[in-house]
């Protein structure tokens, strides 16, 4: 795991992040407890699970047969240098596990499959993956399903009857658009024994921007409940103790959960059974649109000092906010913007329409020429625009939503009516009435409303949640919060589109 910058980028291309010992031991123990002695790791890497299997073999005095796949011969060579035994190395087939799967089945399968997101996969691979989806589910999975999803599907297809599988996967496995199809298939055909989640302090992969989860699945008749486990502290023994004996220490929280509820809430989220069904969602009161994507913030997003020296007329400038870390309060006030200006931070967006270049004032023309010299007009998003300098526009929204930041996701009251860049979403109340806006703000800032973000968002490392605009409109608003805001009783037009 401990890789940084360019090194991490290179690893990411191949999905090469290694499993720590305390996780590998628990996962292999679960898989072997099904009673079979043949263990497959379809993505061996440096052999974390092979090492774990040998430890367990010695401890339990049983003979384990290891089998593995690994696509990258350089990693296999590395595994040899890092201590994998010669006879274990001989069990590894250097081949693509997903596109050329084995014809044999296995009694125990463990993996930390490569987390390669869909946009990094070659077109031909994507086509073949879609085919796997079509054959398995009757229809291809949404194209955003990454390679790790197909590792899980392939592995389940070759799991022996009574066999056990344990995979460590990113939370998108149960938060993606494709997740309902995948999990309904799993729930109908296998027994989900447990889902293990991690508090940010307990993550097995510190510093990596994903929220990992372990799935423990048996090829047995499905049951109505499963164990939902949360590791609270990075305590090597707690998880293993629970897998071995079912014992619970203060370091893990274990709950028996209803499978139907888990499927509808999502396995990365805590149980929702006790909550009331929300009558209203944010979309009833507001429309959500992402902020402006400039394609080159360093060119379009300017400081006061830059603006003064470029002498760009004010009609081509809008007040803007572009970084979630710049807004530490729940409201954007004049003072907050002044403070940013004093600190030399950008707060102005160059906002140009599509008029011909020579109809702009000379100061703007000169600045655009600088952009051309720097190649700004050739940047991916900008190159698709005509003319390239035409910027997106937004009405200043009354509320912003910071959807992925180091500080958790939150709503912000945009009192100064700035226009946000794309790290924020714009939230437009469906009525322009000032009192409606105030009442909506009492709902948006309520902690119970904010807590519901986890129901519609995607979770990332260190507890961050990302919520797309459409998902934010589906945010359930707690009934008691809506009632106490008085927003419905006031009879404001909730269907009116802004
Ligand atoms: C996340 S690493 C995990 C390695 C190891 N099992 C562990 O847990 O530490 C995933 C491994 O899968 C390999 N890999 C990537 N694509 C593969 C494929 N299509 N078939 C087999 N292995 C693949 C990568 O090279 C990488 O070594």
What would you say this structure looks like, in words?
It is a single chain. With 498 residues, the chain is α/β, with parallel strands linked by helices. It has 2 domains: 5-265, Rossmann fold, CATH 3.40.50; 284-485, no CATH class. The protein is 34% helix and 20% strand. It is built from 20 helices and 21 strands. Strands 3-2-1-4-5-7-6-8-9 form a 9-stranded mixed β-sheet, sandwiched between helices. A 4-stranded antiparallel β-sheet has the order 11-18-15-16. It has a 4-stranded mixed β-sheet with strand order 12-14-13-17. The two termini are 47 Å apart. Residues 1-5 have low confidence and may be disordered. The structure holds S-adenosylmethionine. S-adenosylmethionine binds next to α3 and β2.
List keywords for this structure.
alpha/beta; 2 domains; 9-stranded mixed β-sheet; 20 helices; 34% helix; disordered N terminus; binds S-adenosylmethionine
What does this entry show, briefly?
This protein is α/β, with parallel strands linked by helices. The chain contains 20 helices and 21 strands.
Task: Note the topology.
Layout: H1 5-14, H2 21-32, E1 38-41, H3 48-60, E2 65-70, H4 73-81, H5 86-89, E3 92-94, E4 106-111, H6 123-137, H7 147-157, E5 159-170, H8 179-189, E6 191-198, E7 212-218, E8 225-231, H9 236-245, E9 252-258, H10 259-265, E10 280-281, E11 286-290, H11 297-300, E12 301-302, H12 304-310, E13 317-321, H13 334-342, E14 348-350, H14 362-374, H15 380-383, E15 399-402, E16 410-413, E17 419-420, E18 424-429, H16 434-444, H17 447-451, H18 453-456, E19 458-459, E20 465-466, H19 469-473, E21 476-477, H20 479-485
Parallel strand pairs: 1-2, 1-4, 2-3, 4-5, 6-8, 13-17
Antiparallel strand pairs: 5-7, 6-7, 8-9, 10-21, 11-18, 12-14, 13-14, 15-16, 15-18, 19-20
Helix pairs in contact: 2-3, 2-9
